[in-house]
């Protein structure tokens, strides 16, 4: 019996916390007390409370961040798998404030690391490609880390754009109509600088979307969009007339 007690207590606390989130007692953005404080309040070990919070995070109820602690998660953003979405509109659809922050901008020759990160072909990006990296924010919290290269030979106007003020993806959607697009989506565990920029612990689950657009056989841009896994999900709708 003694062996089962921690499991029962863990489940009771988990149910209580889940109920408070679902019924709105703890609304989206609510900051939970520190793990040590919760453990003391409920008379359990810190390990048991960590287990509860970890389960809540894996189920999408809370977000655990290094600096800001554990907060109740907002409703997840949704992206259509086959659509080229405006990230600012994704954030606005959640009723949250959107902000873009440019981290770096370089016009240079690509290297093997660029090709590996962005899934480029061996002969890409060539000379004078514009490399950009920035963060999309939702209510001042990192929402998506964007790493992008633009074919400046095909899109020379990009070199004169102030991408601190202009969101690269939005600008490209308005100015460079594409004829082909490819998406590659996978789940990854974030680490290193990516984890730091997204304010996530090393090993946290993220959704990585690699996106490539072309005009005929010429590539326009390749982007890597990295979303915290608990804050994003993909949807797809299919017409019954489409074959399998």
Please give the structural blueprint.
Blueprint: H1 5-22, H2 35-42, H3 46-58, E1 62-65, E2 69-72, E3 77-80, H4 87-93, E4 98-108, H5 112-118, E5 129-138, E6 141-150, H6 168-175, E7 180-189, H7 192-197, E8 205-215, E9 218-228, E10 232-235
Parallel strand pairs: 3-10
Antiparallel strand pairs: 1-2, 4-5, 5-6, 6-9, 7-8, 8-9
Helix pairs in contact: 1-3, 2-3
Number of helices: 7
Uncertain segments: 1-6, 78-82, 238-244
Order of helices and strands: HHHEEEHEHEEHEHEEE
Instruction: Work out the number of β strands.
Output: 10
What structural class should be given to the helix and strand makeup?
alpha+beta
Strand order of the largest sheet: 4-5-6-9-8-7
Rounded to an integer in angstroms, the radius of gyration calculated over CA atoms is 21 Å
**Regarding CATH, which class of the largest domain?**
Alpha Beta
> How much β-strand is present in the residues?
25-35%
Largest beta-sheet characterization: 6 strands, antiparallel
Percent of residues in helices: 25-40%
CATH architectural arrangement of the largest domain: 3-Layer(aba) Sandwich
How far from one another are the termini?
A: 53 Å
Mean pLDDT: 83
Which outline best applies? elongated
Tally of structural domains: 2
CATH topology group of the largest domain? Chorismate lyase
Mind telling me the CATH superfamily name of the largest domain? Chorismate lyase-like
């Amino acid at each position: 019996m003694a062996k089962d007690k921690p499991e029962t207590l863990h489940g009771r606390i988990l149910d209580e916390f889940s109920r408070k989130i679902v019924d709105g007692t703890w609304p989206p953005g609510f900051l939970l007390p520190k793990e040590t404080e919760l453990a003391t309040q409920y008379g359990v070990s810190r390990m048991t409370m960590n287990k509860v919070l970890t389960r809540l995070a894996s189920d999408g109820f809370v977000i655990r961040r290094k600096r800001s602690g554990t907060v109740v998660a907002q409703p997840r953003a949704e992206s259509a798998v086959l659509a080229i979405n405006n990230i600012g509109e994704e954030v606005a659809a959640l009723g949250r404030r959107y902000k873009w922050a440019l981290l770096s901008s370089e016009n240079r020759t690509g290297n093997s690391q660029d090709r590996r990160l962005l899934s480029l072909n061996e002969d890409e990006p060539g000379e004078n490609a514009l490399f950009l990296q920035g963060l999309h924010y939702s209510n001042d919290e990192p929402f998506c880390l964007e790493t992008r290269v633009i074919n400046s030979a095909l899109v020379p106007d990009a070199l004169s754009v102030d991408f601190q003020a202009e969101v690269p993806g939005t600008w490209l959607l308005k100015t460079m109509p594409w004829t082909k697009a490819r998406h590659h989506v996978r789940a990854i565990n974030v680490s290193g600088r990516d984890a730091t920029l997204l304010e996530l612990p090393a090993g946290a689950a993220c959704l990585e979307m690699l996106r490539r657009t072309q005009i005929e056989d010429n590539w326009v841009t390749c982007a890597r969009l990295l979303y915290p896994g608990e804050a994003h999900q993909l949807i797809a709708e299919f017409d019954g007339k489409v074959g399998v």
